Every structure is written in C-alpha cells, then in structure tokens.
Amino acid sequence: MNLLWKVAMAIALAAMTGGLAIAQEDADAPAVQWKTFTSQAGRFTAKFPGEVKVEEKPNAVHTHASPKGVDADFRVAYTDRAGQEASLELAFKELRRIRKATCEGQGIKPADELDFLFGDLPACQFEFTKDVGDTKAFYRMRFILAGKRFYQVLYGYPSEQAMKAEGELFVKSFKINGGAAAGNAGEDGPVPAPPAPPAPPAPAPIKGEVAR
Prior knowledge:
This protein has three helices and eleven strands; from the N terminus they run H-E-E-E-E-E-H-E-E-E-E-H-E-E. By secondary structure, it is of the alpha+beta class. Strand 3 and strand 4 form a beta hairpin. The termini are far apart.
C-alpha cells in the first residue's frame, strides 16, 4: 500500500464518517493504461488508470487504481445514508457541512471550493495539498449526493508528477448509471449551483393600517 493511497483512504473515510483548467502532462510521466470499469452495486462507471481494486470497508465501498509505477490514487467511494435532504438547498448545506468536517478532521485547508450541479444532483468540489512523508501531494475531491447515496470521486498524486490532466480525465469519466434522473456532468465541467431564491417581499399594509 503506497503512501498517497493511505492518505486518500483516510480522507475518504473521514468524509464518510463526517457525512453520515488542465495542466500539461509532464514529459517524464509514465503512459497511463485506462480501463473502463462499471460497478453494478455502486451504480457508476468510470475510467481508471490501471488495475481496479474494490474494497468493502465498514462504512463505504472503495473502488480505486494507481498508474503503474506511480505513487498516486484515483478513487470512487460510496455509501448509503439513512435518509435524504428534502430540498436542493438543504442538500448543499449538508455537503458544505461534510466538506468542513472532513477538512477540519484531517487538518487540511481547502482551495477552489465549488458548489455545483452534477447533472441535476447537488455536488461540491475542492482541492488541497498535503505533506505525505517527504512528498508534497496534490488532491482534488468531489462529493455528490444522489438521494440517499453519497459518492466521493477523488484523485491524488505527487505534485512534481504533473498528473492533473489524468486526474481530470478520470473525474470527467465518472457517470452515475440509472437513467437521466441520476444526473451526470457534461464534458464542459460542473455547472455552478443556482443562487438561493430571493426572500419574498413584505406584505403590503392593509388599507387604514400604518406600515411599520
């Protein structure tokens, strides 16, 4: 088990417990062998950079792979919650709570935080860097709520490897199966979440009543 794999697993587990612009490819980066993988139980399909492994943990199922010869991690994790939010606004509020709890619990400072719609599903995304032993690693995480199911799509790699292009290919390949209602982001990337509806206007005073 490589170091970045361990860190990615720890952060993903933290999010599960708490939840209950592409760079140029480096010339020295190894060629990646992409494999399309579909999880029937997970109801998703994604392209992974190498041999795919599936692990069932007490609080989530993890599907992950690493490019051959690279200490990196490309991962999808999912779990089913007891219930779901009654509105889009409450779903985004819950995602922000999970993100905050994850970052505080792991001692990481999120950057480029974004709330968006993954198709018609509430989602959020953020990135961060973290020292893993002697290696400075870059991570990008995406959280998606699909009813009771909570998905995490993340990748991490040593900063000097410049594998963001591969990471974004992986993220964009992720699809939730089960029809149009499942929702999937387009090739152009996430659509920002719609603004909260404006507050209703104050009622007009009744005739003969003094407005306050």
